[in-house]
User: Fold this.
Amino acid sequence: MLRALRLRRDSITQLERFRKRGVIFGKNLEVESGAEIDYSHGFQVEIGDYVTLGHRSRIYAHDSSAKLYLERTRIGKVKIGNRVSIGACAVILPGVFIGDDVIIGAGSVVTKDIPSRSVVAGNPARVIESLDDFIEKWKKQMEIYPCFGNEYSFSHESVGGENVSIAMKQEIVKAMERYAFVH
Assistant:
């Protein structure tokens, strides 16, 4: 319980740090461990409602790659729509606009705008399917693979799934052949 409280407090502190940098964000921004938004140019970043920044994801609003040669840093607005999931270790580069209802795969490098209702992955990130096709595929998998109830929630408030007992974790492992679904 103490670790869960510490994580929740750290998350609030993280949001306060983003706000001080000028980041504009909506309701229910979930920030997983190690996620960062441009330290020096956060004022160029706008994030919608119900967005998740995955573990160690990065959002940059500046590019200093030519500063040595041009004595200038390019800056660019970054706009992220509503209901966007940014996967672990994904990188969003300056000048990118991301639509609503988007999933960005882990490790992706987003260099261009992403249309609404898309699933993207890769380096550079590209659309791999529509959100509707992705959801339909997962629904079919949920008919095949085990699904566990709310009591098996590995929420962001718990570190390492503390709220899920060892016996429950063993039950998940025993039931799984390849995948399972938890809350």
